[in-house]
Amino acid sequence: MERWRGKFALVTGSSAGIGFAITEGLVRARINVFACARNVASLEELTASLPSNSGTIYPLKVDLSKEEQIKSIFQTIQTRCGHVDILVNNVVNCLSGGLDGQASDDWRLMLEEDNVQTGHIININSAEWDPSYVGLNFCGATKEMTSALTKALRYELLQKKSKIRVTSIRPGLVASRSVQELLKDDQLTGHEDSPALNCQDVADGVLYVLSVPEKVVITELSFEAH
């Protein structure tokens, strides 16, 4: 992780669950994080609890379903540091909106900045879609789409001879807040006792992908609970 210390990351969906765990893991590894969330109160509390040698959290209150707010993120980043070195897409809307034929010039600029010599895009997807998780079928189908978009992005960057790496992280069932709510509402019937990962497991996966030697590229990381 040494090469990433002092660098800048952008993490979406940072206020809770997987995004929060990823943000905390990165800043504890001394990486500065632009943390996007609709509610930044938890991020401000996290900042107050971190050791003094941690990276810095820059909370960004934003709704990623709104194009103008996505643009404001990039304007903030370009003003403060020029570009990010790590992009963790933890929100489906951010990924599909960002890759969709490039509605945002700022998004394209972030990928094509001439002075970006290397970087890493990490998309949080999910393990192979299992239709028996009825309450998660829409989410599962969407994640399958984002997995395909991740492969397409990796190919496009390779065609441009870009040094930016792309990784798809595909965890199995995660005991996130949304999954807990679905269980409470009986929308995951038959899976009440299924083993589940916790959010920290996914964050550890992100840190592992970033920690491998620079000559190694992990294109996809899949794991599940037992």
How would you describe what is shown here?
One of its GO terms (molecular function) is oxidoreductase activity. Belongs to the short-chain dehydrogenases/reductases (SDR) family. It comes from Hypsibius exemplaris (Freshwater tardigrade). InterPro entries: NAD(P)-bd_dom_sf (IPR036291), SDR_fam (IPR002347). Pfam families: adh_short. There is one protein chain. This protein has a 7-stranded parallel β-sheet, sandwiched between helices. The longest helix is centred in the middle third of the chain and has 23 residues, at 137-159. Helix 1 (17-28) packs across helix 8 (199-211) and helix 4 (92-99) crosses helix 6 (137-159). The chain is built from 8 helices and 7 strands. It is globular and about 50 Å long. Strand 1 (8-11), helix 1 and strand 2 form a beta-alpha-beta unit. Helices cover 42% and strands 16% of the residues. It has a single domain, classed as NAD(P)-binding Rossmann-like Domain (Rossmann fold), CATH 3.40.50.720. It has 226 residues and is α/β, with parallel strands linked by helices. Mean pLDDT is 80; it is low at 92-104 and 106-115.
Secondary structure topology:
Elements: E1 8-11, H1 17-28, E2 32-37, H2 41-49, E3 57-61, H3 67-80, E4 86-89, H4 92-99, H5 105-112, E5 119-124, H6 137-159, E6 164-171, H7 177-184, H8 199-211, E7 220-223
Parallel strand pairs: 1-2, 1-4, 2-3, 4-5, 5-6, 6-7
